[in-house]
Specification:
5 domains; alpha/beta; Rossmann fold; eight-stranded mixed sheet; 771 residues
Length: 771
């Protein structure tokens, strides 16, 4: 075909592509309803498409730099200048690039004049200058003064001065978490270099509150205000207000048993009663008896303050009455057989009857229910068209990719309503602006642990009254709200427990025992717990860490145990890292540990691309590798792509999780240096890597029976391969070790590696009897 005909076809093809591309973009904008400019934008795009269709020239292929067979320097510079915008000059002859550069320089040199809305001038001590361009700071100050706690500032400071231990009770949203540390900071409790520490049960809350407080104080996050969570820290020598998870404060006891760096410790959200919170309550009770200068504040949003007061020798209770905005609570007249269907009916009723604006937050139990409700809502509203206003459905759960999770924080378009479908993570950790209505299903997935079977179960259970009150409080954060409870008032008063069972009574205590032993607390039975854990669970935990050689025959911590206690990990994972030194594969093991710390948040499986996601995931299981080495393959492949985001999207791997794994791995390297574990690498010796895994998880071993089921080696319990395991689609190996046992519909082994039986006897002869 002649050259001119080929060029003509290419031009026609380009024009046709551009027309289809513009029409597609127009449809996307229509589907998203981008506010009031929607008709204008659509008309502009349609007019552009029509103009291209009329224009004979249409889209032109860019001219190449060089002539065929030779270098045309003049044409090269002409093409380059054309791309830089030299053919678009203003009346003074300046190009678009020169205009942009001039504008940027002008904005930088006139900082503080016309463009001060982008920056906040700060004084040396963190106080804020009053300028005319501080709308954000003005709003923050106005919001602070509107909080109920602000009116009781002076009374609170007098109470802190008079009493060493203070229990604070206040409604959700009254300002306890963000304002109390600032009150103490202004009152001089950070003088002489002392810090104010505030603990949070969840890392998301520690990060978000620290950011909020730094904005209110007008300081950079990481200077006067910072946070510290597991494997991540934004603190410096200047930090005086430190938000952290309760587990981080527990680790600080190892370095400073009397917490000499702190003048005030605030245990926030103490009613959630995590394992670390319960241990901290006992340790801090002991410290306050010999450190009279240390102030302790225990904060709770429930009426369980009496128990905290009695635990701390009848400490006074400071009550903050009121909430920012009133909340109406509505109950069902009679119980319903299906709370999922009741939730859908309630959402649609609120959406149709209640006025805009006002978003809806719905509490469900897990990913399956959230996806089911999302699909049913779309199905039931599909044929209504313009009869109802637009409904934007935003799910949020642990395994959802970050870019989809952040949609819940985006402003709701005018004339639309956002429906957030969430698990119980939204009870305390997340505050979504614009939430006016809450739909509470009354259920949540509660994790419990059986010490006899060594198995965790995730069971849908009724929530407590404290959790119900927390959920209702989500609707009154930014304005008057309504809470629709999908259960009766009788159920709330008589069938629900007052508080959720403390985590310490329903979890594996191996890490708790190792932590207490590292703090020098050997009498675990008589430790001052607010609620003592079951004796069977303590005994099981002692057996587990003794089998890992972390304890000697007298119950004292060994050198192995001391090194293991330095890692903020489960003891089995810590033992893996320490044992990797022997097998010369520490680099590979910390990669595996960092990936295992992500849980199930590595891969993402979109509904419409399930086959593609499965194929991408299967590629990491090439050969006879198990789940642990497959995770290592994922990280190494991402590393080879130079930690590319595009690689994650192509392989259906969650980018935020991988970045998190990289941070964890960097922190583990630092701890390895501290405990003097040599960095070694042996990527091709899978047997050495598996032996290091067995060193930590030999207690979690199972053998394949003739029936096709697995039986655990120690308890002879029948278990199954988890469907997410790579071996679920392969020939089942005879012997395996697993990361954990989880009871959902069956007793599943999760995180599986194929091993040889002789390795078990070689690595842990004290645990296995010779067959």
């Amino acid at each position: 075909m002649p050259h001119s005909s080929s060029s003509r076809l290419r031009e026609l093809s380009r024009r046709d592509y551009l027309r289809r591309r513009i029409k597609k973009k127009a449809r996307e904008i229509v589907s998203q309803e981008l506010g009031q400019r929607l008709p204008e934008l659509v008309n502009e795009l349609i007019d552009s498409a029509a103009e291209i269709h009329k224009n004979e020239d249409g889209y032109r292929i860019p001219v190449s730099y060089d002539a065929v067979g030779a270098v045309d320097q003049a044409r090269r510079f002409a093409c380059a200048s054309q791309r830089d915008g030299d053919h678009h000059r203003d009346q003074d002859g300046r190009t678009e690039y020169e205009l942009w550069e001039r504008n940027q320089i002008s904005r930088a040199t006139t900082f503080g004049a016309e463009d001060t809305t982008l920056f906040i001038p700060i004084k040396a001590k963190g106080e804020i200058h009053e300028t005319r361009a501080e709308p954000m700071l003005s709003k923050l100050r106005k919001d602070r003064r509107a909080l109920p706690i602000y009116r009781y500032r002076e009374e609170f400071l007098r109470a802190v001065a008079d009493y060493q231990v203070l229990v604070i009770v206040g409604e959700t949203g009254c300002g306890k978490t963000s304002q109390i540390p600032q009150f103490l900071y202004k009152a001089g409790y950070t003088n002489h270099g002392k810090k104010i520490g505030c603990t949070q049960p969840r890392r998301v809350a520690a990060m978000s509150v620290a950011t909020r407080v730094s904005n209110e104080m007008g300081v950079k996050l990481g200077n006067e205000v910072g946070y510290s969570i597991r494997f991540e820290e934004r603190c410096s020598e200047k930090t005086l207000i430190k938000y952290m998870t309760d587990g981080i404060l527990l680790k600080e006891f190892l370095r400073s048993p009397n917490l000499s760096d702190y003048s005030v410790i605030m245990l926030d959200e103490a009613h959630e009663r995590t394992v670390s919170t319960d241990i901290l309550l006992g340790l801090l009770k002991d410290i306050t008896r010999f450190r009279s200068d240390l102030k302790l504040i225990v904060s709770s949003a429930t009426l369980d303050a009496k128990r905290f007061s009695e635990f701390f020798d009848l400490a006074p209770v400071f009550t903050i009455p009121g909430r920012p905005y009133p909340i109406e609570v509505h109950y069902l007249q009679a119980p319903v057989p299906d709370y999922v269907d009741a939730a859908i009916v309630t959402i649609l009723a609120v959406h149709v009857k209640e006025a805009l604006p006002g978003d809806i937050l719905v509490f469900l139990t897990g990913q399956e229910e959230i996806e089911a409700v999302s699909d049913l809502l779309r199905h039931r509203t599909r044929n209504l068209g313009t009869k109802i206003s637009e409904m934007i459905i935003c799910p949020v759960y642990a395994n959802l990719p970050t870019e989809l999770q952040t949609l819940i924080f985006q402003p709701t378009p005018h004339g639309a309503r956002k429906v957030v479908l969430a698990t119980n993570i939204a009870e305390t950790s997340l505050t979504v602006e614009g939430i006016t209505y809450v739909v509470d299903s009354g259920f949540a997935k509660i994790k419990s642990y059986s010490p006899r079977l060594g198995m965790e179960s995730l069971v849908i259970s009724s929530i407590s009254r404290a959790s119900a009150d927390q959920r209702a409080g989500r609707s009154g954060r930014t304005g008057p709200g309504k809470c629709f409870r999908l259960y009766t008032r009788h159920s709330y008063d008589h069938n629900m427990e007052a508080n959720t069972l403390p985590e310490i009574q329903r979890t594996n205590l191996a890490n708790v025992v190792l932590t207490l032993k590292s703090l020098g607390i050997n009498d675990l039975v008589n430790f001052d717990f607010m609620d003592a854990p079951p004796a069977e669970a303590l005994l099981r935990a002692l057996e587990q860490i003794y089998a890992l050689n972390a304890l000697d025959n007298h119950g004292n911590l060994t050198k192995m145990g001391q090194r293991m206690s330095e890692f903020p990990l489960d003891p089995m994972l810590s033992k893996m890292i320490v044992a990797s030194e022997k097998y010369k594969c520490s680099e590979e093991i910390i990669t595996i540990v960092s990936m295992m710390s992500l849980g199930n948040a590595v891969f993402y499986q979109p509904k419409d691309r399930k086959i593609h996601a499965d194929n991408a995931r299967r590629s990491f299981y090439a050969g006879d590798v198990g789940d642990h080495i497959a995770l290592m393959n994922v990280y190494n492949a991402w590393k080879e792509s130079n930690f590319s985001a595009a690689w994650c999207y192509e392989n259906y791997v969650q980018l935020r999780s991988m970045r998190r794994a990289r941070q964890i791995r960097d922190q583990l390297e630092v701890i390895m240096q501290r405990v003097e574990i040599e960095k070694t690498s042996n990527p091709n010796d899978h047997d050495a890597i598996k032996k290091a895994i067995v060193s930590g998880f030999f207690q979690n071993s199972a053998k394949l029976l003739k029936s096709g089921l697995y039986q655990t080696a120690k308890n002879s319990q029948t278990v199954f391969l988890h469907p997410s395991s790579g071996f679920a689609q392969k020939t089942a190996p005879t012997w395996v070790v697993y990361h954990e046992l989880v009871l959902t519909t069956k007793e599943y082994m999760r995180g599986i590696t194929k091993v040889r039986p002789e390795w078990l006897h070689e690595i842990a002869p004290h645990y296995f009897r010779s067959q």
